[in-house]
Amino acid sequence: MYVCICNAITDKEIRQAVCQGSKCLNSLQKKLPVGTECGSCSCLAKQLIADTLDELENSRNNQVA
Ligand code: FES
User: Fold this and answer.
1) In contact, 22 and 28? CB cutoff 8 Å
2) With the CA atoms of 63, 15, 50 and 19 taken in that order, what torsion angle do they form, in degrees rounded to the nearest 10?
3) CATH code, 20
4) pLDDT for 16-34, tens place per residue?
5) In the chain, how many domains are there?
6) How far is it, in rounded angstroms, from Cα 58 to Cα 50?
7) Using CA atoms, how far apart are residues 26 and 23, in angstroms rounded to an integer?
8) Range of the domain at 42
9) DSSP letters of 4-26?
10) pTM to 2 decimals?
C-alpha cells in the first residue's frame, strides 16, 4: 500500500528501512523522501515506524523466551 503518494513510497519500503535502522521520521527521511512534499503522510509514517519497532521488539523477546 502506498503511504506517501507524493513520492510513491510504500509501507513495505518504510518497514524495510526501519528494519535497517531508521527509528524515527528524521532518520527515515535520510533513506526515503517520505513526508517531504505535502506532509500529509507523516502521521501514518510515524505510526508505521512505531508499529514496526514494536514488532521487532516482540520478535526479539520471543527468540529470547
Ligand atoms: S503524501 Fe507524503 S509528502 Fe505528500
Assistant:
1) yes
2) 50
3) 1.10.10.1100
4) 999 999 999 999 999 999 9
5) 1
6) 12
7) 8
8) 2-64
9) ETTTTEEHHHHHHHHHTT--SHH
10) 0.92
Alpha-carbon distance values, 8 to 14, 39, 57, 59 (Å): 11, 13, 28, 29
Is the C-beta atom of 37 inside 6 A of ligand 1? yes
Half-sphere exposure of 53 (CA within 13 A, CB side): 12
Residue to probe by mutation, ligand 1, list 6, 11, 29, 46, most atoms within 8 Å of CB = 6
**Residue that the C-alpha cell 535502522 belongs to:** 21
Q: Which of 20, 49, 21, 19 is nearest to 34 (CA)?
A: 49
Which atom belonging to ligand 1 lies closest to the Cα atom of 42? 2
CA distance between the termini of the chain: 33
Q: Cell digits for 9?
A: 513510497
